[in-house]
Amino acid sequence: MTTLPKQNRIYLVADEQAFRTSLEGALIAAGFELRTFASQGEFLRAVASLETGCLISSLQGRAGFELTEEVRRRGLAFPTIVVADLRTPRTVTRAMKLGIAEVLPRRVAPDRLAEAIKRVLAIFRDLTRTGESPSTMRARFLALTALERQIVERLVSGRTKAAIAAELAIELRLVEAGTSRAMRKLRASNLTHLIRMVLDGGIKLSAISLAVIAFAPRIGVM
């Protein structure tokens, strides 16, 4: 059974000493219980004995993502933030598929990182407490309108709201409204939570959309 993370416990894995040092003081001052690791190997040697907390991975190249893959391979669950050189919609989507909650730029301000940590820990606690079954999640997706499903599908694939509006040939305000309705129906606390729900639940949005549209006259969903 996955344990709930302590409100302020975090693990910082950073192979750059200057970066590690610059964050240590700021995060401790922000009230976090911090433990640092200088490499992926150092963290993995200790991970089995660690209590659940927020993992912050700042490693060169793809190592931050690889660390998350190895942790998951071992059957462990840590809400994770990756600090990377490049943050793009594609990078964020890839991160979500690996169970990474957030990707932040390397020059992230300490106060922004602190807020991200609090947000990620809150989402992780919500997901762990609810323990809702995949069938329950799929039932909620079936309650979305065709437009809401199209918007969610594109958000999960990494598109921005502006790009979605252009692709669907609708106004941006309609995309924003559709996103808000979908989040409310799916009980997602924010966009990151929404994407995690879709990916963790193994939801195949395109397949669901086709199925619902096919039965729309019968069940009255449009």
CATH topology of the largest domain: Rossmann fold
Order of helices and strands: EHEHEHEHEHHHHHHHH
Query: How many strands, what sense, and barrel or not for the largest sheet?
Result: 5 strands, parallel
CATH superfamily descriptor of the largest domain = Response regulator
How many domains?
2
Low-confidence stretches: 206-222
The first-level CATH class of the largest domain is given as Alpha Beta
What would the average pLDDT be, to the nearest integer? 77
What radius of gyration results from the CA coordinates?
19 Å
CATH architecture of the largest domain, please?
A: 3-Layer(aba) Sandwich
Number of strands: 5
Global shape: elongated
Category from helices, strands and their pairing: alpha/beta
Number of separate helices = 12
The percent range for helix content is 55-70%
Strand order of the largest sheet: 2-1-3-4-5
Distance between the termini: 39 Å
Q: Tell me what portion of residues adopts beta-strand conformation.
A: 5-15%
